[in-house]
Amino acid sequence: MFPFHFIGYWGNQKKDFLTPRRKGAKEEGKLFWDVVYVGCESLPALPRNMIAGISAGGVSDVLDVWVSVESNKLILGREAFGRVSLFWTQQGGVICFASQLQLLLEVMEKPEVNISGLYGYSCFSYVPNPLTPVSNVFSVAAGTEVIWQDVDNPQVGNIYQWCESKSQIEDENTAVSQLQVLLQDSIQKQIADLKDEPVGVFLSGGLDSSLVAALLVKAGVKVRAYTLDFGKVGISEYPYAEEVAAFLNIPLVKVDASPGNIKKALIPTIKALDLPFGDGVTVPLYLLNQVASQETQVIFNGEGGDQLFAGWTNKPLIAAGIYQGEHPNQEEGFIHQYLRTFHRLWGYESRVYQPEIYAQIQGLNAQEWLLNALDANFCPSLLHRLRRASLLLKGAQNIHPRATALGFAHGLVVRSPFCDLLLAVWTFQLSGELCLHGACEKYILKRAAENWLPAKIVWRQKRGMGVPLTSWCLNDYWHDIGNWLNPGILSSENCFFPDIASQIVTGKLGGQIQGRRIGESLWLLIIWQLWRYHVFGSKLGKKSLYHPFILPRWLWKKYQQFPI
After folding, report:
1. H-assigned helices in 99-171
2. Element at 50 (helix H, strand E)
3. Which residue of 100, 180, 395, 547 is surrounded by the most CB atoms within 10 Å?
4. Which among 6, 22, 3 is positioned nearest to 97, based on CA atoms?
5. What span, in angstroms and rounded, lies between the C-alpha atoms of 417 and 438?
6. How far is residue 10 CA from its own chain's centroid?
7. CB burial readout 316-348, b (16+ within 10 A) else e
8. Average pLDDT across the chain, whole number
9. SS3 at position 68
10. Which of 375, 385, 489, 395 is CA-nearest to residue 126?
């Protein structure tokens, strides 16, 4: 059940980079291959022809990524939810593959930052598949297999597509009854191997995590819940988590997510994530995993509920889609509107990047990374199309892989009951009215949960986790920003403009970057810079002392009132 990683190769010559870990390449025809597991004392049981595989939940017969060698073919595959990452690169006549980017970086002579990956990250807060932040290293996209018969000619095939069902469920009672069965079946599958040990649940007090906790308790599992405490700043979810825990009669552990603890965990989080993920929730989630790992080996979460049941973020996009349908000649199209929902640095390129990098990204179009996800051929109706996009983008490329990476870093296996294929396929049979009932999002899930949770929890309006990034950056981390986004270092790297941090905090970067967006934009850049130093291995340049963050913020604000 313990989590682990692997690295291996396949090709027309033996490679010696694995020999420090283990000797002994296998030969099949004229081709050679070998795999080494990291953090695993014995080889896991695998199906025939499969030479490597990982399950996020620690269930050997349900693999989330796999590597097969058969008939002189190499196959790298990844399941549809994207719960575990899988990377590959070509070195001459050899394909090297690994479940961690850092393992591949170890065998590359002179890795370079991938500018396309950097640009994608600045648009979405994650690097869009199949790109990675490293040149010539690629990620296997969720729901696909990459197949080599010829080392120089990989073929990508879809093994699953999220598609709208031709027949739609209209009757509410039928949908509620079917959904309750599917939810309980998903839980049963994920607890089948458990003995009598307690499991952890990350409990925000929102519908999804509360429902997972309730179903586990109903199934007779011993549950310990963990929730975040941001103190007096941010949007406190703790009272709701406390109410759910009391209702279910389960212990609740409050995890201190104060600025001091966040700062201590920042670099360990970046190393654990392997890839740069620029959302503010990542370090708080690291702290949850850290505490939970002291008491359990299995953690459950409610990730995926928003993607399956059209959570609150879909409302503005539905309005935009309807408007675009009625005004098709408007200058800004629907995909532009969708890009804006990421609230990152798309649209600010000329003010973010120095000229050399800006010139390199001129040929890139961020919309192209969204086209497949928003393809109306798979989902003609708007709500199903948005759900498909959310599964393929925010789910498979951000939420699920980062949850697994953070769990694995703490020796935890990670189970997400909403990542159930039968359940997910069923949701594409739902009529739009059952997902978004008037202004009520996730309506059918709330109806299904009514018998298992307090009404106050089920029907309350829920927004995302209220991580107080702007407060932290403008107060607790004010001086740290001068180090993390130091203008001297940024100038020498020739990527971001040296004064980008001061431009953001003064509101001069762009009119939309105000309030909470200030902290989100700064955090996005901080994570990238720290990833470059602590994972990619870039050397720090010379720091400059000429920046506003060297002064106390109150003094700098006074200075701003009397410019010279």
Report:
1. 101-105, 115-124
2. strand 50-54
3. 395
4. 6
5. 27
6. 29
7. ebbebbeebeeeeeeeeebbbbbbbebebbbeb
8. 91
9. strand
10. 395
